[in-house]
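Q: Sensory histidine kinase/phosphatase NtrB, please. Structure only.
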Amino acid sequence: MERQTVYSLLIDHLSTAVVQLNRELQIEYLNPAAEMLLAVSRRRIYGQDLEAAFREDGESINALAAAVESGYPFTKRETEIGLNNSKKLFCDYTVTPVMGTMNNTESLIIELYPRDRMKRISQEGELIANHQTSKELVRGLAHEIKNPLGGIRGAAQLISRAFKDEALNDYTQVIIEESDRLRDLVDRLLGPRQLPKNKALNIHRVIERVKQLTLVESDGQIEIIRDYDPSIPDIYGDEAQLIQAVLNVTRNAMQALLEDESNQQKQIRIATRALRQFTIGTKRHRLVCKISVIDNGPGIPAAILNSLFYPMVSGRPEGTGLGLSIAQSVIHQHHGIIECNSDQNNTEFNILMPIETAVQDQEKHL
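A: Structure for Sensory histidine kinase/phosphatase NtrB:
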């Protein structure tokens, strides 16, 4: 085998994305890793300018031209490049000039290292830690509230028995009812208290139930678009709890859309995908189920985006701030996580649950 062919095979089998440019910054080569990362076909973009693969600002293009002239390599850290599918990629890249026989630069080699995944793993770890901290805080707070609350309620009942005056009984009844309301609020803060009744289930059955409930609640004002991946295997989980979690997320999108009077085409898209070799938190899973709930509403205020899953945090004046917190707790019980990205007219909640963990749990119970 010729040496040139060996080199080509080695580069083609690298996991690092490699792009080769000529002196005019036109594309000469991409390896398969670069095709996957940039979502392009190398056969279609050979000979075209760099922007056929990805877009950079004018300063960075000038830096590439300067590297051709000087022959000096450089590295750009934590930059965001635009892809042709309208998405953006957060990455590092290194530019290395390839020198010819006349000591002139013949081409540039660009090696791209995506940081999106590392950034997401870091954010997920922080989200999991913050949720655990808030859960412990709520548990302690609930204990401190429910103890005196029970005493207040009991005292009000004793008072109502001691007095025959109906007017006084009305006052004690108010105390009892408000005590019960606070107790119910604390119970909701704590999330699901029953042990999960896990069984094998089709996640699309869960989503269809959520879709039906959402259409009824919205009185047909919202269009729900389904985009399902039929290859997703059954998940082992609690159907009622999963319906509640997905419904809470979908209801959050529905309420935002119904309050947006300027939007005449209110839409929620629910998509499912099977992800392979995917990391949740710090653990890598062979197969993960992803449920995306995407709406074209006004978006979530940046001020609450990072604390969205905390109890009592809501972007709506009449909101309780419990729905998303409870949903996150349910998905955590299924070894998963809920993420959120929001821009104007595009808010996306992603529910991620490992499938093989659920299967292993099922086997343990057999």
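A: Brief note, in case it's useful. Residues 357-366 have pLDDT under 50 and may be disordered.
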